[in-house]
Amino acid sequence: MRLKTEILGVESGGRPIVFLNKYDADELGISASGRVLLRSRKDITAIVNVATRSVRKGHVGISEEIRMMLGKVPHYIDVEISSFPKSLQFIRNKLEGKKLVYKEIYEIVKGVVDGNLSENEIASFVTALHIRGLDLDEATSLSMSMVETGARLNLGKRVVDKHSVGGVPGDKTTLLVVPIVAAAGLIIPKTSSRAITSAAGTADRAETIMPVNISNNEMKKIVKKCGGCLVWGGALDLAPADDIFVRTEYSLYIDPLLLPSIMSKKKAVGATHLVVDIPTGRGAKVKTISEADQLAKDIIELGKRLKIHTHCVLTYGEQPIGYTVGPALEAREALEVLMNESNVPDLIDKACNIAGTIFEITGRKNGYELAKNMLKTGRAEAKLRQMIGLQGGNQNIMPDDLPIGSHTLKVKARKEGQVIWINNNAIVEIARSAGAPKDKGAGIVFNKKIGDQVSKDDILFTVYAEKSRKLNRAHDLLEEINPIGVGKRADMVIHTIKESPMIKKSFVLER
Amino acid sequence: MRLKTEILGVESGGRPIVFLNKYDADELGISASGRVLLRSRKDITAIVNVATRSVRKGHVGISEEIRMMLGKVPHYIDVEISSFPKSLQFIRNKLEGKKLVYKEIYEIVKGVVDGNLSENEIASFVTALHIRGLDLDEATSLSMSMVETGARLNLGKRVVDKHSVGGVPGDKTTLLVVPIVAAAGLIIPKTSSRAITSAAGTADRAETIMPVNISNNEMKKIVKKCGGCLVWGGALDLAPADDIFVRTEYSLYIDPLLLPSIMSKKKAVGATHLVVDIPTGRGAKVKTISEADQLAKDIIELGKRLKIHTHCVLTYGEQPIGYTVGPALEAREALEVLMNESNVPDLIDKACNIAGTIFEITGRKNGYELAKNMLKTGRAEAKLRQMIGLQGGNQNIMPDDLPIGSHTLKVKARKEGQVIWINNNAIVEIARSAGAPKDKGAGIVFNKKIGDQVSKDDILFTVYAEKSRKLNRAHDLLEEINPIGVGKRADMVIHTIKESPMIKKSFVLER
After folding, report:
1. ipTM of the predicted structure?
2. Which residue of B has its CA nearest to A198?
């Protein structure tokens, strides 16, 4: 059917979508979510939205995605019904509990990347993976398919990488690990993500000290020159299927693709040695040590299949790492530690343990000491500054150069005692309500952490915001929730849930 | 956040969708598929699409659905982040295999109808229902929730209805059952659907003899006057959640909501007595008798919970009902039978059995004979003509008044023998390729059915099309597939699948 092309000027989330008038859709014998083939210089498969008013009979409305794929948009385009893709049958097989083989999984992943599968169908596949589970063969197939449907880097025979399963606020460890490892001569092409539900992702933190939106080619040049980089992974087209799966998983809080997601990104950068940090605790993504142990075992097995030597490090995740939460505040803290201007014991211990494990997995002895040495001698700092320069930032940047929000709210102890617990989720909520990660200068600085002695009126932590409106939002939130517990070590009650909840707070607010 | 409203002029499949610029989305702290609250005269919850180019910073693009909900569109609108709806938690619970209670299911169904749940989330729920299954309590809750989130009819203390699980081409039984039942004084407010994957739905058939797009109020008046109606259910807002679930189920070929879908529509029209036809056979939706027996048991149990007295009739579904397939051809055949101008034994038997069961379930004796009597005496025909008049059609319509496609293709026997089998799916494909259900005059007329004796060159069936292009399409398809088997009763082979398939056809084509 020959239809007049109409550019709608709307984006459809990366997927090629056409709008057909109901009349034409009926004429073609196609319903919403069906597929058509657009015959142009190249054939494009698109998913159909049916319009009753907004697109006229005889017209086909195209999304921005299709406009870009077409290049020069023809006045008329031939639209044909397209049969269901094979990948749909494979998704159905997974729904029925059948194990999928590599070829089938590859077809599905390719359908996801090419946009031939609708949101519905992808959501159904992800849900089936969650309920039915996936075994090691399937996880391997998914990882490799995700790698092969994207770009790949090739930076040498031995490439190391690190990853954190995440969930702990203030975790700026990567900002230390990458320069420590590169300073010792290893190759570590680190790609990171931005925050989705957290207060800062590593890419958000790094961006406050240097550009992180770097192309594949530039990245290769940088890594060849200085051994490492700290870039945003989102623009590199590494395992792009992952980003689409994540979008589906997001609101449902499920992540059956956790392992393939981690490992495909690592395989795509050509990693041969990998250390995975699994923060563990009530306030982390992984709650218990036995859960973390099982996850570690699975990650290591999958690593073997993908020919990536993998070690996992279980870390303490009951409270934020270091004293800061929020992109710029965290970058400042990392910079200060690298410059030996500030002593942040838990952050240093964690970074040196992870860097140390990377050293040992690649054959060096006394990894922890080697890592500490890279820090103490300033070689890690020098390496970071070289990296900053190569990525297009100011090599001489100082911690105070990073702007921090000027609106503050002090949270003070109502009574004396000890910090007994910190609620990570509440801390993230407060930092986000104050503007993080969008407002890079927003966040939280702790004066006290778990185990610290507290006197009445001591500042427990300070909230920073760039905009007073957002500080008000954080203030309102703090009236409602209780992110920190101060008391005696023997105090057992966190709070009591009554019919009308009464939260016993151990702090007062002051601006 | 106050944003300038921009009418995008696109429809978003019934769901309220806004497009935000990436900058504003980040500022609000929201990702794609997140939800926002639009503050206007009434609050509207909308699902977010993130745009990078097509919507400018400071603007909010609204879909046609939202434009309609807003009525007068304000120049600016306050957009706030909206938290995840409770229903998402309940969907997650189902994913984890937990049984859902009525309140939880109601929240989900309401979220579906109000558009507060995204396509992803609905697909995930439907998939979870398919894999985890749903028990009778959950099916009851789903049915009732679907009823309560839509319109309801109240037409009297005793209202009867019929339903077919479907899957057999040419099934025009309803066109006979409704006038037979109404002629005997029962109330039967029949709503029907249009074809999605078949060659004709009952609404498509009925539409060739009278208007079927009738409002709730008109429908009530018609039923009060003549006891029955034959209308399209799609515009009546009866159990509207069902239509949305069906859209998700469609491409995945799953239908975990089959029972609630059937029963909610019946409950919404106020049915107290129901007969469900379950066509059974290789060419029907339900393949085996034991499968049909189980389904019947479940339907009857659900009926009890919903206070609908239900009987199920298992019928022969190995070949089309009667001699015609396609909207107008089928309507002609039904009209001829009602006028006693044509004898179509299987159609008459099926219609009288189903109408008869309706009579018996409501307390009458000798239902089959009573039904047959309504047919023979012309009372059913008179009732249909009254109905046609009340629905705005021509009461004196004759079978020949229904236009049939003028392009024909005769399918003739290559050799003598007996019709051994008819492939229903292939018949539907041929009828659809010839233009049905869109072209109402397209379809198939059979001269021979299973068991009939065939001589060489006898016409087996004729394909009708309104457009020669579509007849060509049917012709091409017939070169490829084999919809009918002619041979000796003892011939056991249907066809042989070889590396290069060789289909042994028992027909030749003639135009």
Report:
1. 0.83
2. B29
